[in-house]
Design a protein that fits this description.
This protein is an alpha/beta fold. The chain is built from ten helices and ten strands. The N terminus is likely disordered.
């Protein structure tokens, strides 16, 4: 089945769960040719056998193939709690588009598909997942659970977010991260998708909120979602354009080439400051370019999950 056929002609995903499954299966197939080959068997339905455990559930057929000891996982096992957080402010719906495909996504649809793919990996690992969505309000919260019914409910919320098209919705990441932290009662792997576009005066407040998460012993991964070609390198043709801030409504009429060099210098400086701040607070910072594949997202998830357990 062509992945593009899994998408609606106008807005939204026809079957986000199926598309996420295909993304993950393609990723796992690629691992056989990567340094993460050893993860592929463990990831599917097994975990590495630890000396001293019962040998009752060792998969001897897998041992014959890999010369490594793995034990089978069972439905009642939950090894990790993961909470996904999505920024649904207006800037996350850039670029505005009528049709989506796997290789033609805006920031919010990239975040939703990445989240659905992580949820599918969590399902295979018998892990629990929760979801929070925020903009200038705390739009949605669901605690971490492991049932199929629960994951289906979260997928429906991701589908809603993609087509929500909020108008003039600002980003109050720092405010709602505090609220989300209060909802996380057990140690979790927290994964945040945001473009980090907000008023610069709020930067300190944002990292104070991220530090609040760390203080509660959660592990935090920040996927910085952006359109690298446009939002980092400002690659627009040099015709007169109106650049509009979709959150505040302010705009600037300008030729792109006039400000390209200064813009790129300032945005790179800002991104580097974000990376340094994340390193200072021991938050995993990952660039998430919407024009790239999901491999970096899923590889990061697997590595962080392995470190968390």
């Amino acid at each position: 089945m062509d992945l593009k056929e899994e998408l609606q002609h106008v807005g939204g995903f026809v079957n986000l769960e199926l598309l996420a499954k295909q993304v993950v299966e393609g990723f796992i197939a690629g691992m056989h040719k990567s340094p993460f080959h050893g993860f592929s068997a463990e990831f599917a339905e097994h975990k590495i056998y630890n000396q001293g455990e019962s040998t009752k559930h060792i998969d001897w057929k897998l041992f014959a193939k890999t010369d490594k000891l793995y034990t089978k996982r069972y439905d009642e096992e939950t090894n990790l709690r993961c909470h996904l957080i999505i920024d649904n402010s207006s800037s996350m719906h850039y670029p505005e588009m009528q049709k989506f495909s796997l290789h033609h996504l805006n920031k919010i649809s990239f975040s939703a598909l990445a989240s659905a793919s992580i949820m599918h990996m969590l399902k295979r690992q018998r892990d629990a997942v929760g979801l929070s969505v925020y903009s200038d309000t705390y739009e949605y919260y669901a605690p971490e659970k492991g049932s199929d019914r629960h994951r289906h409910m979260l997928t429906k919320e991701l589908e809603r977010v993609v087509v929500s098209m909020p108008q003039a919705k600002t980003t109050d990441t720092y405010t709602y991260l505090h609220h989300i932290t209060e909802n996380l009662h057990k140690r979790s792997l927290v994964i945040l998708f945001t473009d980090m576009f907000q008023e610069s005066a709020k930067d300190d407040q944002l990292f104070e909120a991220l530090r609040h998460l760390k203080y509660n012993k959660h592990e935090v991964v920040l996927f910085h979602v952006f359109d690298k070609d446009k939002e980092m390198h400002f690659n627009f043709d040099n015709t007169p354009k109106r650049f509009l801030d979709v959150e505040t409504g302010s705009y600037l009429n300008v030729y792109a080439d006039t400000i390209k060099a200064n813009y790129e210098t300032e945005i790179l400086k800002y991104f580097e400051a974000l990376k340094l701040k994340c390193a200072q607070y021991k938050i995993k910072y990952v660039e998430a370019d919407i024009n790239s594949s999901f491999d970096n997202i899923l590889t990061t998830f697997m590595v962080e999950r392995s470190k968390f357990l």
